[in-house]
Write the structure tokens for this entry.
Amino acid sequence: MPAHRLDARPWAVSRFDLIGQDSQKQHNMIQHVGLSVESVDGGLAGDPIPCRHMSPPLEETSICLHVWGGMAIDADESALMEIFLTTVESEYERAKVLEDSRRQYIALPHVREVSDE
């Protein structure tokens, strides 16, 4: 997927495009990337764009648009993206971690320690 650092020209952002926000500390470094949750026509560098974060905490907020990456997807691929996002959210709901985003960072061990004692 091609990605572009935005300049002064307006950009069209489609649903499920990747959008990136620059780091405030390091020049030309991306701090965060999210999936656009709606189409935005004429987005400018620095504009807040609604997005879905793909790492904890799982939530929808806006990030400033500095980098954009996207590709055309058809209706079937769009439906698969919806299924994926719904599945992730339902797993978080079942685990009851949406209310307290700090719990989204806890990793349960994949093994159980057993001793001979």
Notes: The chain has one helix and eight strands. The mean pLDDT is 84.
